[in-house]
Structure to design on (193 residues):
């Protein structure tokens, strides 16, 4: 359902998100990265964040489940963005960091543990992982998209089931897009041995 939404509304979604200032979210993430780190932008959308990280000197690979978003992100970032779902990720011990900004929230609660496990396997030891969810504790459908909302307790429960990642920090922010009043749960995880 969400993939269809992004395929059908890619142009308007890109216009509404491409120029959003994300620096306040980038900073806690990049402070934990080594120079020249390889970042997976998981669910890259418009390619905004991929391009920003490349401009900062990081190496980036990007994926998205929507073919239309892959085309937009490839054109905008200059990357060869791969058309791939989270469930299709099969990398092992490859990435220094993962950036999954407002993307995992489209995975159903029942599938999240498996997706988190797949993504964590793709991280190197001590790798850093940023993720965000709309703040709440429910699954819902809105405007043709499915959402899994998490609060701190929901995230803690999700991550406690994983053996190889831990929560480093969480914080709540308001939506960075103008005229949006939604709250977001942001978190940084670390891969542990």
């Amino acid at each position: 359902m969400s993939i269809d939404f992004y395929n059908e509304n890619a142009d308007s979604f890109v216009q509404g998100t491409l120029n959003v200032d994300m620096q306040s979210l980038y900073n806690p993430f990049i402070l934990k990265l080594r120079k020249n780190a390889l970042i997976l932008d998981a669910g890259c959308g418009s390619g905004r964040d991929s391009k920003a990280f490349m401009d900062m000197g990081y190496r980036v690979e990007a994926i998205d489940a929507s073919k239309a978003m892959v085309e937009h992100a490839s054109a905008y970032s200059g990357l060869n963005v791969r058309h791939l779902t989270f469930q299709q990720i099969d990398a092992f011990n490859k990435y220094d960091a993962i950036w999954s900004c407002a993307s995992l929230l489209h995975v159903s609660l029942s599938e999240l543990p498996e997706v988190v496990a797949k993504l964590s396997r793709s991280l190197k030891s001590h790798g850093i992982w940023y993720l965000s969810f709309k703040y709440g504790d429910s699954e819902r459908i809105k405007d043709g998209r499915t959402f899994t909302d998490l609060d701190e307790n929901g995230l803690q429960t999700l991550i406690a089931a994983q053996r190889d990642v831990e929560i480093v920090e969480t914080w709540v922010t308001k939506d960075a897009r103008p005229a949006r009043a939604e709250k977001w749960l942001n978190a940084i995880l670390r891969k542990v041995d």
Notes: The helical segments are 2-8, 10-17, 23-30, 48-55, 67-77, 112-122, 152-160.
